[in-house]
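Help!! Second protein's tokens look totally different from the first
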Amino acid sequence: MSQQVITYPASKRSDIFEQMHESQNWYSIEYDGWRLPATDDARADCGKWLTKGCLNVAAHKNSQFPGKIYIKTFQKSCYRSCCEVCFKKWMARESNKATRRIEKYEKLSKKPAKHIVISVPSWKYYIPIRELRKEAYQILKKVNCIGGTLIFHPFRYSKKVREWYYSPHFHVIGFGWISYTEEVYNENGWIVKNKGVRDSTFATFYYQLSHAGIKKGYHTLTWFGDLSYSKLKIEKEENSDTCPLCEAKLKLIFHYGLYGYVPPPETEVELYEDPEGWHIVESKIPERKASKPCFVIYKKHKPLYDMI
């Protein structure tokens, strides 16, 4: 008998997420250092739009854009899960890495990934998370989950009162013929639900990370079984931070035109431009004492501070 594969969408969650994020206790709920994402202040330059590019016109002479430079705008990010500005960048980066790992195993095994939820018995709620995670791995092995990723969720959301409450559970994107869930419940009290196959692995990760538990010194997302780091190797992603014309590493640049400094547009663009007015930004520490480096822009040998 073949196992039925159930598919259902995972990407239509934005409205639900916004409601949860605007709940009364998103910023205040905490257990043993575990909190929800986006609960800390951003750094001074988080979300700031900057430009990077390649000004080496000579190296572009034999390309399809001779005499041009390459420029690319981007938004500065700290990629911290706790940052109120950058947490979505963190979610996207982690979701992309996790999706690549899942898809690699899907290709090798010819099996689809499933979304599984395992809930901790109430009498074990206050056991240290490290111990709960170890027991969760054992439970997954008993229900024939052969590998995947484990995402810890310390809290659940009540739509009725619009608040979060402590209820530890794990979300799994994994593989295997999930069975013996009733036997596991009767024996150990753990509730295992097989949610089936998602339409979008990336969207599933993105949504689950949006309200996952975060704590300094702990990984929100961990891998186990056949998808552990010791068993599954993933090729490194190609470096997208290089010039498409000469493959040189992109540098932070700025435009200083006839009327002074021109800030970049607050949107992602990639252009091939004339080199006039473009300069490389060099990060240096001034002679005066400072706790952090600041940008020094060199134009006609005169340093200009704090322009970008």
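Here's the second one for comparison:
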Amino acid sequence: MDIIKGASILLSASIDALLDRILSKKHRDSNIDTLTAAQARMLFLLWKKDEISIKEVSRVTHLQKSTLTSTLAKLEKAGHIKFIPCETDKRKTLVKVINRNEDLVALNKKIIDESGEIFYKGFSDDEIVLYESFLKRTLDNLIEFQTQKK
């Protein structure tokens, strides 16, 4: 049996694009959220790990520097975050959440949960665990490759 490894790449890209559209539509349709889906995902991360360095945000999100900078700048302008100097290392800048709107937190959780239901429709719990283990291994492979290139 010939396995076309490129098919997985195309499927992953299609899944990413469709999921982004679904998340964006859910955010647009909400009456609470004024953020883009990308901004909301970034803020969701920052709610979990407040006061982390920009470098750490980059490491976790794998966003290109220009995309990350732009998204963080928009969140700052909207009054959700601010940049503060690290007290222990003056070379670092930390991202601090200054507006933790609980309605927005609840909305983001709801949107992620609903999207997860769509994403995993028809999957058993065991299949979800297996699929996520494959995704994690794939991500680790890509991170390892990217790290070797630097």
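Reply: Different proteins will give different token patterns, so don't panic. The CA atoms of residues 58 and 64 lie 8 Å apart.
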